[in-house]
Design a protein that fits this description.
The strands form four sheets. This protein has an eight-stranded mixed beta sheet, covered by helices on one side. 32% of the residues lie in helices and 28% in strands. It is globular and about 55 Å long. By secondary structure, the chain is an alpha+beta fold. It has helices at residues 14-32, 40-47, 54-69, 79-84, 98-105, 134-148, 241-265; strands at 5-10, 49-51, 113-115, 119-122, 153-158, 161-166, 174-180, 183-193, 196-202, 207-210, 213-216, 231-238, 271-276, 281-284, 291-292, 298-300. It has seven helices and 16 strands. Helix 1 runs antiparallel to helix 6, helix 3 packs parallel to helix 7 (241-265) and helix 6 packs across helix 7 (241-265). The chain starts with a strand and ends with a strand. Bound molecules: adenosine monophosphate and magnesium ion. Residues 74-76, 78, 82, 87, 129, 131-132, 160, 201, 205, 217-219, 221, 245, 248-249, 253 line the site of adenosine monophosphate.
């Protein structure tokens, strides 16, 4: 999945459990990879119709749900755009021409995805990229596996996706650091967590610079350009890893106002920490006590 992953588990079978997670993540990677010619996603994108495993079907159907929930901000059919900007392994980053972006936008839209019992069809030449949600699925699967091995305390960290399994071995809560978007080696604050997914998306995670402009990897499906929504990063906290992953990407595209509106419209669905371009930190009500940071932050109430 093209990122650094760390799993730390405590308990009698922790070594076996971590190995099982590693195998599971490699299995999912082989299934969902855009590069591997034997992956289900590669075949689906090439043939436009394919029978799919339960994992792939679940992920695609959850992605379509997230597309509807976020009014199109999360959209796995952005594949041709991510490709045009060169954000895939083996490609070179570049600014595409207006014409290229218009062409790449043509098949974008989740209405081009048709799911039936055990197969998927892509219409109008669409291609899919599960990069915005796959790590969430992998962390949920890892948490399930760890629990199957009787692990009561673990931390799964897959790139920007963290999943706390239980609490720390001493019973106190995990403390998950949220990176400072201006200097990711530092943190803007921490979130206390137990049985919780904490997922961050930000332009700082993957980008290139051309003629003094920064272009990052999260694309606005409506414009075809990297999202410029006034946010530097979005962290979502939820018990649902996939939802947290899809929403962190989507809210980064939507920006502060639409993110707040989504939160108010769906009480209890998720919690969030937003960092704005002018370095304001906004935290949803539920996190008021579990979030700590050195500077002031504003609370978004339901
Ligand atoms: P994340 O790190 O979870 O925010 O996901 C970013 C990755 O998701 C990118 O590298 C792309 O592969 C993909 N992506 C980019 N923009 C979008 C979008 N608007 N909706 C869904 N996936 C996206
Ligand atoms: Mg995501």
């Amino acid at each position: 999945m093209d990122t650094v992953m760390t799993i730390t588990a405590y308990g009698a079978d922790s070594k076996k459990a971590v190995k099982a997670c590693e195998d599971e993540i490699n299995r999912l990677d082989a299934l969902l990879s855009l590069q591997n010619k034997n992956s289900e996603i590669y075949r689906l994108n090439r043939n436009k119709t394919a029978e799919a495993s339960v994992d792939t079907l679940t992920l695609i159907s959850r992605s379509v749900d997230a597309n509807m929930l976020t009014d199109g901000a999360f959209d796995i059919t952005i594949e041709p755009l991510v490709r045009a900007w060169g954000f895939y392994t083996g490609l070179e980053n570049r600014v595409p021409s207006k014409q290229e972006i218009e062409t790449a936008l043509l098949p974008v839209g989740s209405q081009n995805i048709e799911i039936s019992q055990n197969s998927v069809r892509l219409l109008n030449g669409a291609c899919v990229d599960l990069g915005g949600i796959a790590k969430g699925y992998a962390s949920a699967k890892s948490a399930e596996l760890l629990e199957d091995y009787g692990i009561e305390s673990a931390i799964v960290s897959l790139g920007g996706n963290v999943r706390a399994v239980g609490a720390k071995p001493d019973g106190t809560l995990w403390s998950v650091a949220i990176a400072d978007p201006d200097d990711p080696s530092k943190q803007i604050g921490t979130l206390k967590a137990k049985d919780l997914a904490v997922v961050t998306s930000g332009g700082y995670q993957r980008y290139f610079e051309e003629n003094g402009e920064i272009y990052h990897h999260i694309i606005n499906p409506k414009t075809g350009y990297p999202a410029k929504s006034g946010l530097k990063s979005v962290t979502i906290a939820s018990e649902d890893d996939c939802l947290a992953d899809a929403l962190s990407t989507a809210l980064f595209v939507m920006g502060r106002e639409k993110a707040e509106a989504l939160y108010k419209k769906n009480p209890g669905l998720f919690d969030a920490v937003l960092v704005t371009d002018d370095n304001k930190i906004l935290v949803t009500d539920n996190l008021r006590d579990s979030f700590s940071c050195k500077t002031n932050f504003e609370v978004i109430t339901p």
